[in-house]
Specification:
The protein has 2 domains: 107 residues, no CATH class; 154 residues. The chain is built from 9 helices and 7 strands; from the N terminus they run E-H-E-E-E-E-E-E-H-H-H-H-H-H-H-H. Strands 1-2-7-6-5-4-3 form a 7-stranded mixed beta sheet. Helix 4 packs antiparallel against helix 5 and helix 4 crosses helix 9. The longest helix is centred in the middle third of the chain and has 29 residues. The protein is elongated.
Length: 276
């Protein structure tokens, strides 16, 4: 279903597409009759080392701000207004047919950023780091379903790491055999909800603010929902909505043996019969 947009809303969408959207994500819209590109966008400049304003640029002379760009395949360049040396070039398709507009990026240079925060890269093992790099690359090429599948795999692997710590602490603590057995069974279970029951309680309090949903539970819920019932575009939107939460939580998450012991003690206190 096309979005009903004003000219101002269309310009905002086009700016967002150039600044942030992956390749091949399609904008369908009606209403707006604007046919020229944004005159300025905001991007990080590698030379200035800051986010700067970038202006439409042409090496052949001044850019006509009212030039019609809505005529099929085309390209556009943007120059950093601060340093005046860095360029971003975009290739796109923009067309109007029977009152319905269609816009999508089909290429850009420099390519979309796939860098990973240093603190997150240090927390992930080689396999999970590779999975997350693939998730970012797939997202940047408009493949939302596949991107979510790799992201969910990393979440599940990290939960297994937490359960490993919990099981190790349980063995050290000479915990009840049946409870240790439950922890081991939970780890190999294919039901993520079972794993969350244990692992979520081990999250440090600053990663699960009071009154807010457990972030790991929410990450898995959203990624699973996308994989089971959403379109490519909807999965891209889900990926973009959870990316910052994922990087924040797993960039800071370190569950220590002491955390596991404290949880086990609390659980033991709850399960032991009260004296009459």
């Amino acid at each position: 279903m096309p979005d009903q947009l004003t000219n101002e809303q269309l310009e905002a969408k086009l700016k967002e597409a150039f600044e942030f959207w992956p390749l091949y994500r399609v904008l369908h819209y009606t209403g707006a009759d604007r046919n020229c590109l944004p005159s300025e966008i905001s991007l990080f400049c590698s030379k200035c080392a800051h986010v700067q304003q970038w202006k439409r640029y042409s090496r052949y002379g001044a850019v006509n701000p009212e030039e019609n760009s809505r005529h099929g395949f085309d390209s556009a360049e943007y120059l950093c207004r601060n340093c005046g040396t860095r360029l971003h070039k975009y290739y796109f398709y923009w067309h109007m047919d029977n009152g319905i507009g269609e816009f999508l990026k089909i290429g850009q240079w420099p390519s979309i950023d796939e860098s990973i925060q240093t603190n997150l890269a240090g927390r992930l093992d080689a396999e999970d780091l590779d999975f997350y790099k693939k998730a970012l690359r797939l997202r940047n090429h408009g493949l939302g379903v596949a991107a979510l599948a790799y992201l969910r795999r990393v979440v599940e692997n990290r939960i297994n790491d937490i359960l490993d710590v919990l099981a190790e602490a349980a063995r050290e603590h000479d915990f009840a055999a049946e409870e240790l057995k439950t922890i081991e069974a939970t780890k190999v279970s294919h039901r993520f909800d079972d794993k969350i029951t244990y692992a979520a309680k081990l999250l440090p309090s600053h990663l699960r603010p009071k009154g807010q949903p457990n972030p790991i539970d929410k990450l898995h819920e959203l990624t699973s929902e996308g994989l089971h019932s959403k379109s490519e575009t909807e999965c891209l939107e889900i990926f973009d909505s959870v990316k910052n939460v994922f990087e924040y939580v797993f960039g800071k998450l370190t569950v220590q043996i002491d955390d596991a012991r404290e949880f086990l003690k609390s659980l033991q206190d709850m399960t032991q019969p009260k004296p009459k």
